[in-house]
């Protein structure tokens, strides 16, 4: 099981890095956040067969759930509005980390 999880995490990291090259988004500069989300994506891939966003509820309805496969359909709007997607994995140019927000 541990090998399977590590393999999935590596596949997901590769896919995420490829996505950031093709898009104008970046991964969150906080490695702890990225690691947490990658672990969640790997666990959901093992459990459900797809890398569903760990911040969203899997309903079992394939059409509905397709929208939350990472990168989910909501991430662009969230990044535009908030500087980061809901799970904080992807960030845009308007991202303000904890230090910049004064937190």
Automatic annotation (TrEMBL):
Name this protein carries in UniProt? ferredoxin:thioredoxin reductase
Keywords (A to Z) from UniProt:
4Fe-4S, Disulfide bond, Iron, Iron-sulfur, Metal-binding, Oxidoreductase
EC primary class: oxidoreductase
Q: Which GO terms describe its molecular function?
A: 4 iron, 4 sulfur cluster binding; metal ion binding; oxidoreductase activity, acting on iron-sulfur proteins as donors
Record Gene3D superfamilies: Ferredoxin thioredoxin reductase catalytic beta subunit
Name the cofactor(s) required for activity, per the record.
[4Fe-4S] cluster
Organism source for this protein? Answer: Candidatus Brocadia carolinensis
The family line of this record is: Belongs to the ferredoxin thioredoxin reductase beta subunit family.
Catalyses which reaction? [thioredoxin]-disulfide + 2 reduced [2Fe-2S]-[ferredoxin] + 2 H(+) = [thioredoxin]-dithiol + 2 oxidized [2Fe-2S]-[ferredoxin]
Note the subunit structure.
Heterodimer of subunit A (variable subunit) and subunit B (catalytic subunit). Heterodimeric FTR forms a complex with ferredoxin and thioredoxin.
Role played? Catalytic subunit of the ferredoxin-thioredoxin reductase (FTR), which catalyzes the two-electron reduction of thioredoxins by the electrons provided by reduced ferredoxin.
What are the EC numbers? 1.8.7.2
């Amino acid at each position: 099981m541990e090998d399977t999880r590590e393999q999935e995490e590596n596949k997901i990291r590769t896919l995420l890095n490829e996505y950031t090259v093709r898009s104008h988004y970046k991964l969150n500069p906080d490695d702890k956040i990225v690691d947490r989300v990658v672990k969640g994506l790997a666990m959901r891939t093992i459990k459900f067969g797809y890398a569903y966003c760990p911040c969203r509820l899997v309903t079992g309805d394939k059409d509905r759930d397709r929208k939350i496969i990472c990168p989910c359909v909501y991430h662009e709007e969230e990044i535009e509005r908030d500087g980061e997607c809901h799970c904080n994995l992807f960030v845009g140019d308007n991202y303000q980390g904890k230090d910049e927000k004064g937190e």
